[in-house]
Amino acid sequence: MKTPTITVDGRTGCVFEGEQPETYCFVPEDCLLPEVEGVRVLEGDYVRSRWDLRNMRCNDAGEGQHLFPKTQNPVVDFNSDLVRIFLRRIGGAQYS
Q: Using one digit for the tens of pLDDT, what is the confidence trace for 34-78?
């Protein structure tokens, strides 16, 4: 199944489960590298884009400075309450 994309603040990307329980991460497409088994996050680009910080602030993840995605767990259902809360917090998400 193809990972759905969304657009946030004019940037297209994907949403993945975060490394911490019940968290989510938006990752812009220019921070993802397609691979045979899925995608890999270009961590340097992801950190420079500051989405690691923004994702941390948009989740109830507790203390921490960065939040990284689990790319093996893309979000394909945007109807769960936690995903909807996350999307509302990151603001202006548009589905593709």
A: 888 888 999 999 999 999 999 998 988 666 678 999 999 999 988
Give, in order, the Cα–Cα distances in Å from 81 to each of 13, 28, 63, 76, 78.
20, 22, 22, 14, 8
Tokens of 56: 């941390």
| CB-based contact 44:26 (threshold 8 Å) | no
Tokens representing 73 are 């767990």
- Give, as one character, the DSSP assignment of residue 47: H
Give mean pLDDT, residues 22-36. Answer: 93
Question: What are the backbone angles phi and psi of residue 80, rounded to the nearest 5°?
Answer: -70, 150
Q: What pLDDT, on a 0 to 100 scale, did the predictor assign at position 50?
A: 92
> Could you tell me which of 42, 40, 89 has the C-alpha nearest to residue 61?
89
Residue type (1 letter), 11:
R
